[in-house]
């Protein structure tokens, strides 16, 4: 199991105070943003500030991802020149990836693992080819840009976005890549955030991107296996073992069948719980 990414916090690279706070926040990963959270006037200063912070600060076990500007913008090439080999960066996140060719262009100058923003109609339609890119490790949904491009309305059930979200989860799973859900904009609305995290978790996402520290606790809780799920996973594995010892291929637990794929799922749940517990030590 790859490292947990229950919570993935965006931090605008132009905000000193937010960058400073990040070292102590309980987030599994950080996206240091040079793209949409930074105004054109601030782009150059933000790039320099981030390069310094990533050199000077220790972000502990948190995965350090830098979201660069696209290569089709005035800032993309300079961003890549600074962060392509920066020792404080674990991965480079490429915005608005429409096709694998966008990743090819970045891969030509960056030796680090790549992540891709899926946030256009074309990107969602090409999700399988993008997910299969050999240098790609993770995918991030950009639900604000996607809604804008679709002309879709924001709804609590996200019905207009479900086709795109589902296509990207399918693509990520088919290619064995990490996939993280989009942000919830109303950062003071805890009930709304929880509902959207639960929906994303139930669809198969590994975690949620966040915009404010107040959103961390809910994402960390929702995307972690609950105590009840861990207990059930152990019991399923045990029941299946006992059935197999008696020559049976199927166990019955609490009135439900347990077969080999349920055991594989239970094993994944236990591995995820262990990986999360290891972060806490
Ligand atoms: C949304 C915000 C502008 C709110 O900022 P602010 O008014 O400063 O909030 P608070 O006063 O409540 O902040 C309290 C303290 O927390 C720190 N803080 C705030 N946000 C962050 C953060 N993201 N990371 C770390 N620390 C943060 C403040 O500095 C305060 O600290 P203290 O002084 O000690 O009290 C702001 O939260 C913000 O800018 N959020 C990030 C916005 C962003 O990154 N947007 C771009 C990504 S979303 C996107 O583009 C997704 C995708 O591409 C798509 O298309 O959907
Ligand atoms: Mg976007």
Describe the structure.
- It is a single chain.
- With 281 residues, this protein is of the alpha/beta class.
- The protein has two domains: 7-222, Phosphoenolpyruvate-binding domains (TIM Barrel); 227-279.
- Helix content is 46%, strand content 16%.
- It contains twelve helices and ten strands.
- An eight-stranded parallel beta barrel has the order 1-2-3-4-5-6-7-8, surrounded by four helices. The chain has a two-stranded antiparallel ribbon with strand order 9-10.
- Helix 11 crosses helix 12 (260-279).
- Bound molecules: ligand LIB3CWND and magnesium ion.
- Magnesium ion (MG) binds at residues 36, 117, 119, 142, 144-145.
- Ligand LIB3CWND binds next to strand 1, helix 1 and helix 7.
């Amino acid at each position: 199991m790859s490292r947990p990414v229950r919570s993935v916090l965006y931090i605008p690279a132009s905000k000193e105070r937010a960058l400073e706070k990040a070292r102590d926040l309980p987030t599994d990963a950080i996206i240091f943003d040079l793209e949409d959270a930074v105004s054109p006037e601030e782009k150059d200063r933000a790039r320099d500030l981030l390069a310094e912070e990533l050199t000077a600060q220790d972000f502990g076990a948190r995965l350090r991802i830098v979201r660069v500007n696209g290569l089709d913008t005035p800032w993309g090439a300079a961003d890549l020149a600074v962060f392509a080999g920066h020792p404080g960066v674990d991965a480079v996140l490429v915005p608005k990836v429409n096709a694998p060719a966008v990743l090819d262009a970045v891969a030509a100058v960056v030796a680090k693992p790549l992540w891709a923003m899926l946030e256009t109609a074309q990107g969602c339609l090409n999700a399988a080819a993008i997910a299969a890119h050999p240098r790609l490790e993770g995918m991030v949904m950009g639900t604000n840009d996607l809604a804008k491009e679709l002309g879709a309305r924001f709804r609590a059930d996200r019905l207009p976005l479900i086709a795109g979200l589902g296509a990207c989860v399918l693509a990520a799973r088919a290619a064995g890549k990490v996939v993280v859900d989009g942000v919830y904009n109303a950062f003071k609305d805890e009930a709304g955030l929880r509902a959207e995290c639960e929906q994303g978790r139930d669809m198969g996402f590994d975690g949620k991107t966040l915009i404010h520290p107040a959103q961390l606790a809910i994402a960390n809780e929702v995307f972690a296996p609950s105590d009840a799920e861990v207990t059930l996973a152990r019991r399923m594995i045990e029941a299946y073992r006992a059935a197999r010892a008696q020559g049976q291929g199927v166990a019955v637990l609490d009135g439900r069948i347990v077969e080999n794929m349920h055991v594989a799922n239970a094993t994944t749940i236990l591995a995820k719980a262990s990986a999360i517990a290891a972060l806490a030590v």
